[in-house]
Amino acid sequence: MDHGLWTKTKDMRKKIVAGNWKMNMDYEEGLSLFSEVLNMAHDEVTGKQHIVVCSPFIHLHSLVQMAKGNTKVSVGAQNAHQAESGAFTGETSAKMIRSTGAEYVILGHSERRQYFGETNELLAKKVYTALKHSLKPIFCIGETLQERESNVHFDVIKSQLAEGLYHLDAGHFGQVVIAYEPVWAIGTGVTATSAQAQEIHAFIRKEIAAKYGQEVADHTSILYGGSANPKNAPELFAQPDIDGGLIGGASLKSRDFTDIAKVFN
Ligand code: PEP
Description:
This protein is of the alpha/beta class. It has helices spanning 3-11, 27-44, 60-66, 94-99, 110-115, 120-132, 145-149, 153-165, 170-173, 194-212, 214-219, 233-237, 254-261; strands at residues 16-20, 50-54, 73-77, 104-107, 136-141, 177-180, 222-225, 244-247. The chain has an 8-stranded parallel β-barrel with strand order 1-2-3-4-5-6-7-8, surrounded by 6 helices. It is globular. The structure holds phosphoenolpyruvate.
């Protein structure tokens, strides 16, 4: 293997460590956690990696204000509705999210797919609306344990990509960050091995290259998610096709989250 070329293609891509707070943190708790993350990132994060904190909606505007002028840390939401506006009680639109200054939105998280019945078809609409309002989707894909055990995981990933994203032209696709999150590894303490994760990440990149061409594929950041922590992150992030992580549990602890981001220092 040409190690030089390897490093070069990996360098083309933005390295991202994104936190998913899920439905945790009341207003004050969220502000105080974010303030710790900002301070630690300022003092300790020295590379070109980017940190994204995806909070509940209630925090978005305040976090964006706190991060103003900070080039290392951005803010994102965890969901957005597919419609522009209207009679959808309790929902939040992409335009509303963008108006807070948030830049990213997680779409297609397995918890949304599982508990809220979000399908690839619905997610394709959400992705379209998010991009229309200049939000960068962090699009989650990944197989269940049953799908892996039945050896259909590659097919599952392939259709999640195709049905969720392939309506986009290459320009819009270039705004999307992919997160590979095997469902069996989320919140379970069971992490995919670095070899298992790399195998799927390489497959995802190959699929993207087949659809959009090698250059687009080489510039797409593909994050790993599923029980990542400061101990296992170095080996995962060292893989040639892993460009960072989507971090659940460990993003609720500023020390752990920063240590994960520091892997790219
Ligand atoms: C997630 O929810 O996106 C996630 C990866 O969770 P955890 O890190 O807790 O497994």
